[in-house]
Amino acid sequence: MSHLSITTAAAEQIRRVLDERGHGLGLRVTVKPSGCSGYSYVLDFADEAANDDVAFEEHGVKVYVAPEALEMLDGSEVDYVSEGLNRYFRFRNPNVKDECGCGESFSV
């Protein structure tokens, strides 16, 4: 069975954005071929669940993962971090074998 964890900081940010939008079920995550290492994360807000999405719930929020991304994201942690002026969702993914220097793509 696949597992994905959501930190408190990520949950708070997901909830904040959903509240600002006024609608939505949670965060949707998939991956796409991209960059110099192979894949990049694609984040969007889920306004409805696709039939084949797998939902993970923690701290009162849901993250929906597309089935084609499930194996690559299994065991990952979704976090929300602030580094200087930058704020973003970060994935701690144990499946990543290599990342590009700019941090935009990864390989599994």
TrEMBL record:
SUPFAM superfamilies: HesB-like domain. One of its GO terms (biological process) is iron-sulfur cluster assembly. It comes from the Bacteria. InterPro entries: ATAP (IPR016092), ATAP_core_dom (IPR000361), Fe-S_cluster_asmbl/transfer (IPR050322), FeS_cluster_insertion_CS (IPR017870), HesB-like_dom_sf (IPR035903). One of its GO terms (cellular component) is cytosol. GO terms for molecular function: 2 iron, 2 sulfur cluster binding. This is Iron-sulfur cluster assembly protein. The lineage of its organism: Bacteria, Pseudomonadati, Pseudomonadota, Gammaproteobacteria, Oceanospirillales.
